[in-house]
Amino acid sequence: xxxxxxxxxxxxxxxxxxxxxxxxxxxxxxxxxxxxxxxxxxxxxxxxxxxxxxxxxxxxxxxxxxxxxxxxxxxxxxxxxxxxxxxxxxxxxxxxxxxxxxxxxxxxxxxxxxxxxxxxxxxxxxxxxxxxxxxxxxxxxxxxxxxxxxxxxxxxxxxxxxxxxxxxxxxxxxxxxxxxxxxxxxxxxxxxxxxxxxxxxxxxxxxxxxxxxxxxxxxxxxxxxxxxxxxxxxxxxxxxxxxxxxxxxxxxxxxxxxxxxxxxxxxxxxxxxxxxxxxxxxxxxxxxxxxxxxxxxxxxxxxxxxxxxxxxxxxxxxxxxxxxxxxxxxxxxxxxxxxxxxxxxxxxxxxxxxxxxxxxxxxxxx
Length: 366
Known about the structure:
Elements: H1 2-13, H2 18-34, E1 65-68, H3 77-84, H4 86-91, E2 96-99, H5 106-115, E3 121-123, H6 126-133, E4 138-144, E5 151-156, E6 171-174, H7 179-190, E7 199-202, H8 205-213, E8 219-223, H9 226-232, E9 236-241, E10 251-256, H10 257-262, H11 264-283, H12 285-296, H13 300-307, E11 314-315, H14 319-334, H15 351-357, H16 360-363
Parallel strand pairs: 1-2, 6-7, 6-8
Antiparallel strand pairs: 3-10, 4-10, 4-11, 5-8, 5-9
C-alpha cells in the first residue's frame, strides 16, 4: 500500500488533472483493497510509467504526436509490429510517432492507461473489468483469440502435486486480476474447490518467478515465456493449461474513452496493421521465431514452441463475447473481489462504431 501512495504522490506532483488522478486512485484502490495481498511493487518501467497530461499522446520536439502501444511480453503479433516498424510507417504521415512502454502484466497496463501513461493496452479478460469497477472510462477496441494453451499451472519439477485437486491448502502464486487469477478460479471450480481452499500469493510475474524458483510457493499460474523457460530449465512442470476448454474468454485491446474519441484514424490504422501482423505470424512460424530471437534472447526453436500455443487471430466483438465478459465480471463481484457490480457494456462500442475501426477481414468472421 505504501508503494501505491508514493506513486500517487508522484502523479500529483506532475500536475495531472484531478479527474485522471481520481481514475488512477480508484483503480489502484480496487487492486489494493479487494484482492488478497499487497505485494511490494518494484519501482521500475515494467510496473509503472510517468503519466502524461494528454491522451493524444505527447508531442515531441519535432512536432510529432506520440502514441504509446504496450510492448508485448507474451510474444504476440504486437512484437512483430514493433520489430518490423510497419505501424510506425503507417502513422508517420499522420504526424504520429510510436513508443512501446513495457509493463509486468495487464493490471499494471491499465493502471498506466488510466493515468495517461499508455494509449493502447493488450490484456486478458479480467484487468478491464477491475478497471471498469474503479470507474475508469475504458473502451474495448478489439477482441483477440483466447490463446488458452499459452497460460499454464506450474509446480516445481519434483513436487508431489499431480493434479489441481492436490492444490488444497497449498501456496499458489498468480498476478492479481489477471488471466492466471481467473484460470485458477476456473480450475478449482472444476474440481469442486474454491479459491479460499488454497493460500493465494499475489505477485507480479517477475517476483513470482523468483518465489517459484526459490520454492517459496507450491504452484504458479502464469503465461509465456515464463512457462517454457521454467520447463526447459527443469525448475517446473505443467499440471494443466488454459486449453481443453478451461479458458472460455478472449484477450482484448483497449484504450480510454478520450483517446478513442480523439484518435479514431490512429486506432483504425493500428487494428489494420495488427491484423496483418497476426496473419503473417500465423503463416510464417520460422520467420517469426527468427525475427524475435534477438530481442527476446531466446533461441528460435524455443520461440517456435511458444508461438505454437497462440492462434494469432483478431475476432469480431459479438454479443457472445460481451455476455461472456459480463459473466466474468459477475464472478469477480460474487467472489467479493470488486466493490460493485460492473456493466461491461459501458466499455463496448456500438456495432456501427466497431464497423468504422475494425478491418473488414475481421468483421467477415461473424
